[in-house]
Amino acid sequence: DVVMTQSPLSLPVTLGQPASISCRSSQSLVYSDGDTYLNWFQQRPGQSPRRLIYKVSDRDSGVPDRFSGSGSGTDFTLKISRVEAEDVGVYYCMQGTHWPLTFGGGTKVEIK
Amino acid sequence: QVQLQESGPGLVKPSETLSLTCTVSGGSINNYHWSWIRQPPGKGLEWIGYIYYNGSTNYNPSLKSRVTISVDTSKNQFSLKLSSVTAADTAVYYCARGQRGMPQWGQGTLVTVSS
Known about the structure:
Chain A has strands at 4-7, 10-13, 19-25, 38-43, 50-54, 58-59, 67-72, 75-80, 89-95, 102-103, 107-111. Chain A is an all-beta fold. In chain A, strands 2, 4, 5, 6, 9, 10 and 11 form a seven-stranded mixed beta sheet that branches. In chain A, strands 1-3-8-7 form a four-stranded antiparallel beta sheet, with no helix packed on it. By secondary structure, chain B is mainly β. Chain B has strands spanning 3-7, 11-12, 18-25, 33-39, 46-52, 57-59, 67-72, 77-82, 91-97, 104-105, 109-113. At the A-B interface, strand 5 and strand 10 of A face loops of B.
């Protein structure tokens, strides 16, 4: 199975400041069709996960543009340009290239 | 906007079969892939498997011997069965639309395995 490793585990951030989460995969996530199936999900407390980013950098409809994804191959990053109170929660990366699909362990974003 | 709703027993006895249904509303189940994912209390996410509307499936090998996912297009529903459950199967179970990325999720349902 492809192992997805996220860092940091916990990320205390000051409101209005940027935040960055890293996700590394144990194998390249480039699929045979040329796409890279790397997704980012946000899970607010008590809620189900919500997809923010798909195929590395495409934002889902309704996702604020302060969220951005980047990376390639095995190394990916989710950035929040200016953290707001509603961004508190756990963020997961997930690879959709290799079976079985696998998730990172999660990064908990909290306000300092 | 498609909405998904999980339903089924919240308590299952060890060694029995967990059965959940996901009802899709606001859109057709046809032409899409539909997935099940679970999350043990306080832990991360685990992909269980998916089904295409035509019935083709793909399961996580770690659960494959115990999992069956089926679809009923006439009811706009798909279902999960997990046999021989143990306490380790206690989790919130989510249904979701999608195969390689899930843009829509249900609210989840907690299933506890206990006698």
